[in-house]
Amino acid sequence: MFGLFKPPGKIEIQTDKLSYSYGETIKAKVNLTMNEMKKAKGLRLEFYATRQVPYQRTEKDAKGVTRTVTDHKTETVHSFSADLDSEHDYSGSKEYNVELKIPAQGQIKMPDGILGQMAGLAIAAGQLSGNLPKQTHWYIKASLDIPMGADCTKQIEVQVA
């Protein structure tokens, strides 16, 4: 690839703690270090959560027998984004301090209709059996948008329980 698509810098994300509770605020530092000067559209921060949501679909086998299959899809249940810096020439190193509020557990979006009912039943069944898998995954992502070049991007998963 001859370095043609190699990002001209590096982003690191550090949080103040290893794990958080719903309703807490994450204090994080985004460190951008550029190896060379590059014009960029800006530095963007995203804070989002996803989870696997069950859904049902029907399928037919080779003999024409129809059956209902439960599958899963990824749904975004929380999303926040903000520009940390604007369009200009980026060089050297810079640190950005951010605070991200984790919503209270009751404020997390549930799917509408039958999907929401199925998700609620799956959560209730898991709670009753004591075997509730960690369903929601939280991420912080920072991206430096470089036109006509490789973007600098870093994403970390944040533990929320």
Describe the protein's architecture and organization:
- The protein is mostly beta strands.
- It has a single domain (9-160), classed as Sandwich (Immunoglobulin-like).
- Helices cover 11% and strands 57% of the residues.
- The protein has a 5-stranded mixed β-sheet.
- β9 (136-145) and β10 (152-160) form a beta hairpin.
- Mean pLDDT is 86; it is low at 129-133.
Class derived from helix and strand content: mainly beta
* Strand order within the widest beta sheet: 2-10-9-5-6
Q: In what range is the share of β-strand residues?
A: over 45%
Q: Termini distance?
A: 42 Å
Backbone CA Rg: 21 Å
At the fold tier of CATH, the topology name is Immunoglobulin-like
CATH class: Mainly Beta
Uncertain residue ranges? 129-133
With helices defined by DSSP (H or I, 4 residues minimum), what is the helix count? 1
Overall morphology: flat
Number of domains: 1
CATH architectural type: Sandwich
Which sequence of SSEs, written as H and E, runs from N to C? EEEEEEEEHEE
